[in-house]
């Protein structure tokens, strides 16, 4: 049987074109950029003006992020859904909040297998799973 040279050539060329169109995987040197909270203080309260934006950037429910932060601070607060603003009932420095956010990102956002932030938290009963959309890995995480 004869091989159709033209067909083979076209196939190779098609493959090449496909490869050119497929976006290249992000290099491992690419770092996740931590969003920054915008804070101001009213009396003894800390107001996080861009709380919903930060949660959106992390692709996490603001309510989940709120619960984590208030628990870490062992204080009370209130998330205003309409304004997307978190009010914390005590004065918290920007660096303290950044550290808490870094811990949240390390434990509940970054995939431990591939290091990418394209993850979701799936709740199965009392178990929480960090599921990575980039590599498919599943990692149990501590519920809070
Ligand atoms: Zn992954």
Automatic annotation (TrEMBL):
It comes from Fervidicoccus fontis. Transmembrane segments: none annotated. Gene3D superfamilies: 3.30.30.170. Belongs to the eIF-2-beta/eIF-5 family. It comes from the Archaea. One of its GO terms (molecular function) is translation initiation factor activity. InterPro entries: IF2/IF5, TIF2_bsu_arc, Transl_init_fac_IF2/IF5_dom, Transl_init_fac_IF2/IF5_N, Transl_init_fac_IF2/IF5_Zn-bd. This is Translation initiation factor 2 subunit beta. It holds the Pfam family eIF-5_eIF-2B. Residues 29-138 form the Translation initiation factor IF2/IF5 domain.
């Amino acid at each position: 049987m004869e091989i159709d040279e033209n067909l083979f050539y076209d196939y190779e060329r098609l493959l090449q074109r496909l490869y050119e169109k497929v976006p290249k995987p992000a290099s491992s040197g690419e770092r996740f950029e931590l969003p920054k909270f915008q804070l101001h203080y009213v009396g003894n309260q800390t107001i996080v003006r861009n709380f919903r934006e930060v949660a959106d950037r992390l692709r996490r429910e603001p309510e989940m992020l709120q619960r984590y932060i208030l628990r870490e601070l062992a204080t009370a607060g209130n998330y205003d859904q309409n304004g997307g603003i978190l009010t914390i009932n005590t004065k918290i420095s920007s660096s303290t909040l950044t550290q808490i956010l870094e811990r949240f990102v390390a434990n509940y956002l970054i995939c431990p297998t591939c290091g990418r932030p394209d993850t979701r938290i799936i709740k199965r009963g009392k178990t929480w799973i960090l599921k990575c959309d980039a590599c498919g890995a599943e990692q149990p995480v501590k519920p809070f």
